[in-house]
What does this fold into?
Amino acid sequence: MSLTEFAIVETTLREGEQFFSANFSGKDKIEIARVLDDFGVEYIEVTSPSASPQSRLDCQGLAQLGLQAKVLTHIRCHLEDAKVALDTGVDGINMVIGTSRLLRQYSHGKSIEKIIDLATEVITFIHEQSPQTELRFSTEDSFRSGLSDLLRVYQAIEQLGMVHRFGLADTVGVATPNQVFNLVQALRQCSSIDIEFHGHNDTGCAIANSYAALEAGATHINTTVLGIGERNGITPLAGLIARLYTVDSQILHRKYRLKKLSAVHRLVAEKVGITIPYNHYIVGEAAFNHKAGIHTKAMLNHSKTYEIIDPQDFDLTRTLSINHKLTGKHAIAARARQLGLDLDNSQIQTIAKHIKALADRQYLSLDKVDELLYCCAAYSVR
Ligand code: HCA
Ligand code: CU
It folds into this structure.
């Protein structure tokens, strides 16, 4: 796995538009594209211009923004879609067609032979019209497709010499990390071109699956902010960043402006009308909150004891919470010092006991704890 070679294909403006409460205006899309660009994602994927008249205008507008990120549009494997996409001026086209038995039977009705013929026709057309357009060919529902069918399709397409990247999609979120590793590796072994992975999160494996894809040689990973997308979405951007940070935080610092991650999330959450889930990776309210006395004590001695990610790298702060029955005397002493109070060991011990007893009976605010500390300090002065 090489993190220097890897790229994020951010699809909040395509897969994310398929989220139940998403309804981005053209202005919203520009705002979102700009914050993603500011963060530093390598690619921004946008909804097919064939989806609706406004989608076409939005796609054109995004392509002309002059972003650092390459703008890709997603299309079905249709000649008409390809023509419309080429007219928008995007940097690349992400094309997809279903290969699983279910999608062949109930979605487009085509055999594997027909899929190869159609893909050959559409890819050749795009290449002839615009050889510089970065072209990705992907199979929808790859993980419920037959391996020999998949490899047959990819080998036929690779021989055209016109495609820059293959995609594998876990469309229904059914794959496990082992299965993703094996399929990416199988494709890696018989193809030399880049591999993109798109993983849905129906069974909670999207981040692990994306990581397994990278370990097996994938080069591009699809993400959305907050993981939004069809049903319960795909690999969340912050989750992938968290996973990779533990492997090589320096490379991530070089590739992305990590301190912008929160702003990206606040904007997208607002645009889709949700709050950032408390347990979201890095940017959720609980991500850097430490509570139990054992944890807070160790954290005061060394932050790496209970944190694998440094919140400062993301312009965030940690919280050591003390207003509860699991609190500990070290954290309370630290709070007293923070308030500029000079309390000795036995005073701290007494207060800790008192706080635990009070918190056993009622909710205790931090203000109340502070008040107790101030009272204790005032009492000892007298
Ligand atoms: C969908 C299509 C897709 C495409 C992924 C890709 C999927 O069902 O909306 O282009 O690689 O999950 O298969 O998002
Ligand atoms: Cu998808």
